[in-house]
Amino acid sequence: MVCHTLRISILVLGLVTVAASAASADCETDLLQLEAAMKAPGQTPEHLTMMKEAGAKASEALRKDDDAACNKFVMDVLKAAGASADSAAPTPTSTASLGDLKLMRGIVDDTLKIVQKGDVASAKIRIKDLEATWDSARADLKPKNPGAWDALDKSIDAVLKQLRS
Fold first, then answer.
1. Residue 136 has pLDDT above 90, yes or no
2. Model-level pTM greater than 0.70?
């Protein structure tokens, strides 16, 4: 159960990282809406599973620069889960790019792979790289978009806390 929860947290962190570093504001906004809907109270486990699957598909569409597919995956699951796209909409400042976060996204991907193998001790070591990289980039990233930086910082802190507990 702990590994499953940890995987979910790292997956969400990955989605947030992808959203924050994406060149496409449309798909970025869709992923942020999905993230907000996932955090909304009252989501059933079935809806959360559907949202995670849609998030993975939307992230893949984002990597392929396919905004239409990304939007469809997110909007379809929000509709199916009964979540309002309007109520899940991020604030306008949360969609501006923080810049190039490829290195950090790579660390998140590596950590998720390690957790999926069940090696939590190695995941703790690898996630320290994210913490160090993120902290050292703060002076450059935060001024670009303080709201997005704060949201991603909170997500990273949550994953760090889970891995360390």
1. yes
2. no
